Amino acid sequence: MSTASFIPVHMTLCGKGGVGKSVIARMLTEYLTDRGGAPLAFDSDPVNASFAAVEAFDVKRVDLIDADQKINPRRFDKMVLDILESGRPAVIDTGASSFVALMNYMRELGLAETFRGEGHELFLHVPIAGGPSMPFTIENFGDVCSAFGSHAGVVVWLNHFWERIELGGKPFDEWQIRRQHRDVIRAVVEIQRMSSDTSAQDFTALLKSNRSFAEAAGPDSPFHLLSRSRLRRIRQILFDGMDGAFAAVDASRAATVEPDAEVSG
């Protein structure tokens, strides 16, 4: 993974629970570890710390919300300073209940601009889920793009795992909100439906076991031979998708810094 001269900071962001934010954080952490070195990992979900439950990732729990449902500046600032001082990529999983407070505080702080001034680049990973969660996640996607798109990189995750994501029979690329925010979307990653019920069951079992893909393939794996084979295929599909996403990020960055090519005729 290139990410050019800036150190990436990846944050999941959505006001709806159960749509795959922690799965995204897990996949990002394992991908970054495989491609170049383990990132700093933080779980700030006050309700469901499933990201921190994966011991292999050495995730640090951070309680960013006070009793009055406001961001605790001291804790948030310490997390940011830890990231800046480490010189390493970072992955931050956030909770649905903190979405509004976190958005407001990030705007107040100028978080993306602060990171960029210190040689880091903030990427906001926003899931769009199918089924009843779709309208809410689409709305959140638009909110994130409007609030931070000019300063942070927005990465959309289309989570087809439960249901194919289409709006009025149209795929994401044809949606009006996609066209509206086309200039701020840096990449799209798609989590496809599993090719079989057994693959879906194995992937669900992996998530519930709080193990990484690497652990599932290791000598102490609780998964039998065929399950390990299916999990390796799932891992490859996900990693290929992230390869494509980060290649798109690098391409969009290059397009903003390189002069337009002259056209001769």
Secondary structure layout plus pairing:
Elements: E1 7-12, H1 21-35, E2 40-43, E3 60-61, H2 73-86, E4 90-93, H3 99-109, H4 111-117, E5 120-129, H5 134-148, E6 153-159, H6 176-180, E7 185-191, H7 197-209, H8 213-216, H9 225-257
Parallel strand pairs: 1-4, 1-5, 2-3, 2-4, 5-6, 6-7
Helix pairs in contact: 7-9
Overall description:
The chain has 265 residues and is an alpha/beta fold. The protein has a single domain (7-195), classed as Rossmann fold (3-Layer(aba) Sandwich), CATH 3.40.50.300. The chain has helices spanning 21-35, 73-86, 99-109, 111-117, 134-148, 176-180, 197-209, 213-216, 225-257, and strands at residues 7-12, 40-43, 60-61, 90-93, 120-129, 153-159, 185-191. Strand 6 (153-159), helix 6 (176-180) and strand 7 form a beta-alpha-beta unit. The longest helix has 33 residues, at 225-257. Residues 257-265 have low confidence and may be disordered.
- Counting DSSP E segments of at least 2 residues, the number of strands comes to 7
Mean pLDDT: 89
CATH architecture: 3-Layer(aba) Sandwich
Strand content: 15-25%
- Tally of structural domains: 1
CATH topology name, in short, is Rossmann fold
CATH class: Alpha Beta
- Report the major sheet: 7 strands, parallel
Question: What are its keywords?
Answer:
265 residues, alpha/beta, Rossmann fold, 9 helices, 7 strands
